[in-house]
């Protein structure tokens, strides 16, 4: 049924639900905490996702659930957003303050090497597209924050503390 509705109506509902969730979490919790990762396959390509409710290509990740460690949440988000599996422990890179989302949001950023994709990600209500990209062939609409994180990992930009 939901798939029969126009895409713009579905996207509008998802954006409203996402905004409601951010407001709810801001009021119900002292701080929101999420995880994101730069996930590289064996060929050195980076995995990016395009959400159905946000413009641009992003690093995979999301909010942590209650009673979930950062690594557990990361593994869950990678499975959900890309059918990705960690083959080795993720490397903690930085904890960022994400003032663009709210005054209380923080992002734990990891590097994950040699991730394995169980099967290609099929678009769904949250993820419109996903895939691996060579670092010199990123999609044109890769978000500025994603590009900054990649540059920090490459050592071509100084590490920041703001997402």
UniProtKB/TrEMBL annotation:
Which segments constitute the Nudix hydrolase domain? Answer: 30-156
Q: Which cofactor does it need?
A: Mg(2+)
Originating species: Sinorhizobium psoraleae
Name under which the protein is recorded? NUDIX domain-containing protein
Among Pfam families, the record links this protein to: NUDIX
The record's SUPFAM superfamilies line, in alphabetical order, gives:
Nudix (SSF55811)
Q: Which UniProt keywords apply?
A: Hydrolase
């Amino acid at each position: 049924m939901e798939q029969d509705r126009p895409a713009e109506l579905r996207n509008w509902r998802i954006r409203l639900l996402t905004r409601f969730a951010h407001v709810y979490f801001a009021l119900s919790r002292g701080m929101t905490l999420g995880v994101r990762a730069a996930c590289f396959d064996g060929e050195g390509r980076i995995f990016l996702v395009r959400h159905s409710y946000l413009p641009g290509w992003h690093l995979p990740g999301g909010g942590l659930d209650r009673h979930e460690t950062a690594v557990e949440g990361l593994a869950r988000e990678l499975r959900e957003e890309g059918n990705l599996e960690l083959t080795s422990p993720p490397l903690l890179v930085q904890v960022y303050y994400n003032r663009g989302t709210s005054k209380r949001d923080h992002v734990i950023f990891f590097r994950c090497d040699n991730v394995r994709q169980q099967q290609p990600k099929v678009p769904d209500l949250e993820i419109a597209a996903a895939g691996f990209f060579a670092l010199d062939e990123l999609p044109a609409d890769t978000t500025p924050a994603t590009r900054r994180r990649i540059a920090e990992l490459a050592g071509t930009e100084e590490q920041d503390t703001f997402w």
